[in-house]
Amino acid sequence: MELTTLFPHQPSKDPGLLHPLALAYLGDAVYEVFVRQYLISRPNNKPNHMHREATSFVSAKAQCRSIEALMPMLSEEEIDIYKRGRNAKSATSPKNTDVVVYRISTGFECLIGYLYLRGRWDRLRELMEWTIGEKGMNHGTES
Predict the structure, then answer these.
(1) Which position among 22, 71, 81, 130 has the lowest Cβ density within 10 Å, counted as fewest Cβ atoms?
(2) Cα–Cα distance between 141 and 89 in angstroms, integer?
(3) What is the pTM of this model?
(4) Taking phi first (over 0 means left), then psi (-120 to 50 degrees means alpha), and beta for anything else, what does residue 2 get?
(5) pLDDT digits (tens, 9 = 90+) for 123-132
(6) Which residue numbers are catalytic?
């Protein structure tokens, strides 16, 4: 299914021209939905348990570990998008983590948002599955 069919409101610019923090804003939501869907597919669907598990994936530290492990798998284009997000200046500062970790996680989210808007579903799924699968960080979850 085309993204325009599912969501008729498309960005005003080509995804490659969007501000990296706009891509990260969307990427954060896309990754959160992916993780939540993964968690409800597992046997323990107690809300408190799922929330704790989700945090182990979507925290800045977890995203930092994920992107660092994914780096050897990324194309030059993907690395460029990640770096744009990592290097973007934000008006906000992180509350619970180091600035460097926060910026690296922003780069991860930027890449996710970019792949989503480009409609690169297979690649997006491959990278996100890798972050939770046996080959990925596993973040304390069972596979």
Answers:
(1) 71
(2) 33
(3) 0.84
(4) beta
(5) 999 999 998 8
(6) 28
